[in-house]
Design a protein that fits this description.
This protein has 270 residues and is an alpha+beta fold. The protein is 41% helix and 13% strand. The strands form four sheets. A three-stranded antiparallel sheet has the order 6-1-9, covered by helices on one side. It has a two-stranded antiparallel sheet with strand order 2-3. It has a two-stranded antiparallel ribbon with strand order 4-5. Helix 8 runs antiparallel to helix 9. The radius of gyration is 20 Å and the shape is globular. The mean pLDDT is 85.
Length: 270
């Protein structure tokens, strides 16, 4: 049960297959590439594939297939590969790598990494996040996150705080903002990049310097006056935690979406 994310480009493959079908077939292709090679070359189509999927209720179910069935499902992408050539959203530099995923469980290390990026309560980024969380109700009565924590889909059974202060952001707030509020439109994409300090922005001048920019992006219009230059500054170096790396990829996809002027789609696969 991965949670897919991708810039919602109106490209020929998505027009032909639909965004959800494209995400599923890209996942099939990745499975074939990852599991389809043995020490002596490609494995036969009859090779059984099986994996366990944990549902939102915490129960594990087994799904069985074959490598051939997976290859057959992925084959629909071949006709659409030329449309991916040179696409700036192909984050791994190969066709359909615009589609990435958050896998479960979400590690406590990743949850803490997100909160540390927001910063302590007195920081301007934390002030900006509080403004957003209060306005959007992030983390308030979010039953899905409660279910995920009980089911082990989030490693920490309770929302974490990176800073010992009641006013500090907690894990439910940031996970709700990123993963459980639907597709991120341009304003929310920009907001997430700002409060997670993935951009070099004029935030050192106070939140008043960036709120008009966020409002303009939300309204899909140009900001009044000269727009500040934005630069993506998040380090791409892995810290060894797979879950943290996936959230780093999420922010890269958010930056790609912002540059392309499209929403960042977030979809819980089957």
């Amino acid at each position: 049960m991965p949670l897919y994310f991708y810039p919602l480009l109106d490209c020929p493959p998505r027009q032909a297959l639909g965004p959800h079908e494209l995400a599923l077939r890209a996942h099939d292709r990745l499975l074939c590439q990852t599991l389809g090679q043995g020490p002596d070359g490609p494995l036969p189509d009859e090779t059984p594939l099986g994996w366990e999927v944990r549902g939102a209720d915490g129960r594990l179910r087994r799904e069985d297939s074959t490598l051939g069935a997976c290859r057959a499902r992925a084959r629909v992408l071949e006709a659409h590969e030329p449309a991916c050539a040179g696409c700036p959203a192909a984050m791994a530099g190969v066709p359909f790598s615009c589609i990435q995923a958050i896998s479960f469980p979400i590690s406590a290390r990743a949850e803490r990494w997100l909160l540390e990026r927001i910063g302590p309560p007195e920081s301007l980024t934390a002030t900006f996040f509080r403004f957003s969380a209060r306005g959007m109700g992030y983390g308030v009565d979010c039953e899905v996150l409660d279910q995920w924590r009980r089911a082990g889909l989030i490693e920490s059974p309770e929302p974490l705080r990176a800073f010992d202060d009641r006013g500090a952001a907690n894990g439910d707030q940031v996970l709700h903002a990123l993963l459980l509020a639907g597709d991120l439109d341009r304003g929310r994409v920009l907001g997430a990049l700002i409060f997670l300090r993935a951009l070099d922005t004029p935030l050192n001048e106070g939140t008043d310097a960036v709120l008009p920019l966020v409002s303009a992006a939300q309204a899909n219009r140009a900001p009044a006056g000269e727009a500040p230059a934005l630069k993506f500054v998040l380090s791409l170096e892995s810290d060894g935690d797979h879950s943290t790396d996936e959230f780093r990829g999420f922010l890269i996809a958010a930056w790609v979406s912002l540059q392309a002027g499209v929403p960042l789609a977030v979809w819980m696969g089957p």
